[in-house]
Amino acid sequence: MSRKPERGFIELYRNDPERAEALIFGRRAGPSRRGFLKGAGLASMAAAVGGAIPFAANMPAGLVPAAFAQAASGTAPAAPKMLQMAGKVPLILLQEKPLVAETPEHLLDDEVTPTDKFFIRNNGGIPDQPADPKAWKIKVDGEVNSPLELSVGELESRFPMVTLQLQLECGGNGRNQFVPEARGNQWGNGAIGCAQWTGVRLADVLKAAGLKSSAVYTAHYAADPHLSGEARPTISRGVRLPKAMDEHTLIATRMNGEPIPLIHGAPVRLVVPGWPGSASQKWLTRIWVRDKEHDGPGMTGTSYRVARTPMIPGGKPDDANMAIMESMPVRSIVTNVKHGTELSAGTRRLDLRGAAWAGDKAVREVHVSIDYGATWQAVSLAQPKNKHAWQRWTAAVALPSAGYYEIWSRATDADGRAQPHVAGNWNPQGYGANAVSRVAVLSKA
Ligand SMILES: Nc1nc2c(c(=O)[nH]1)N[C@H]1C(S)=C(S)[C@@H](COP(=O)(O)O)O[C@H]1N2
Ligand SMILES: [Mo]
């Protein structure tokens, strides 16, 4: 929607927010700053976003308009590179090796995420397609009375199969909100999918192996080769026993009614809903039950860890202050309006659809705002299909006149915790950024 790339604003904000603010808002930043745009600053902002800004008076000082802050293919700054892959719609390509690709938020409009729209997150290589999927074996050992070795065929015939709609979200979802930039793939909010998964309960398998009283943690292993070529695990995470024993934690063999495709972990993977996706080991080969917190690759240092008490953004972490990330934070997205949409002239009503989720918790309410958070309107929020499924919502907003708007959505979890306006609790690898989501639209004059 902006006429020319305005990437400079974002870089400037990242590198020198005070100066960016002074330039854009036409005054010096500081305690005496005015909280809104006017005069030449407003005119240049309006020119940059391509239209009048009806609620400019509410625009917080220093706010980078969403039109600049996020990439939207075609019109906005730096169109992202898209992944072209058989069996997938074009996804935003974040990394080629390992392959990492995000679902554009406006493609997450289905209640059940279709497999061709599901995001991809690999840390290593991709194993070969198993010749005989039913013969693939997984081991269960460690703090158990009778270690098991089960083929996928045995797994499916020996234990009850359940089908659930479960959200799978990368621990780094939303990472691109952090300032300064955190290390890792710069995800928007699209490292999430809520597919229908079929499999056996991990709890049933662990019970069959007979847990010893010393069992406190799981450790997950898989067949994906390490990118170094060395024979060591790409990633090996685990969860505390109560999460492993949760009836929604599955050893899954089917995704959306079909055998799991190779890219998503064929023939068998874990689905540990609501916790960082890295716990949901693909191409699963072994579950080692441990008598202490697991310390495999991805469990230590700053990996999948957040700060217990806030640390200095960009600063050096204190190991003792880093805690393993467990349930993911509350988040919402708009799924039917693409960021950067130009609405046809005269559009005064916008129907919205979206999704909201909150790790192990339910979402209590979602609100939307079109005036930079000055006023909020409650949406109509559906119950989840089952626990650990996301919740769909709908709303209609009235646009008072032509111009540039940002649709903000903000979810609140069952404990009353809402998405913040700006990502907080900075941590080196960028987990848990869940600021209010923003979609820019331009209603043409
Ligand atoms: N074996 C294996 N399992 C893995 C990974 C991996 O690199 N190797 N990545 C994890 C991460 S970080 C995420 S977010 C999810 C992503 O699952 P998806 O690619 O099916 O969307 O898989 C997890 N399971
Ligand atoms: Mo992830």
Describe this entry's structure for a reader.
There is one protein chain. The strands form 6 sheets. Strands 7, 8, 10, 11 and 12 form a 5-stranded antiparallel sheet that branches. A 5-stranded mixed sheet has the order 17-24-23-19-20, with no helix packed on it. It starts with 6 loop residues before the first helix and ends with a strand. It is built from 7 helices and 24 strands. With about 450 residues, the protein is an alpha+beta fold. A hairpin with a 7-residue loop joins β19 and β20. Molybdenum atom (MO) binds near residues 121, 170, 277 and 278.
Brief write-up:
By secondary structure, the protein is an alpha+beta fold. The protein is 12% helix and 28% strand. Strands 7, 8, 10, 11 and 12 form a five-stranded antiparallel sheet that branches. The protein has a five-stranded mixed sheet with strand order 17-24-23-19-20, with no helix packed on it. The protein has a four-stranded antiparallel sheet with strand order 1-2-3-4, with no helix packed on it.
Descriptive key words:
445 residues, alpha+beta, Sulfite Oxidase, Chain A, domain 2, Immunoglobulin-like, 3 domains, five-stranded antiparallel beta sheet, five-stranded mixed beta sheet, binds ligand MTE, binds molybdenum atom
Q: Quote the distance from N terminus to C terminus.
A: 14 Å
Largest sheet: 5 strands, antiparallel
- How many structural domains can be distinguished in the coordinates? 3
The portion of residues forming beta strands comes to 25-35%
Q: Count every helix, treating DSSP H or I runs of 4 or more residues as helices.
A: 7
- On the 0 to 100 scale, the average pLDDT is 90
In CATH, the architecture of the largest domain is Alpha-Beta Complex
Our Rg estimate from Cα atoms comes to 23 Å
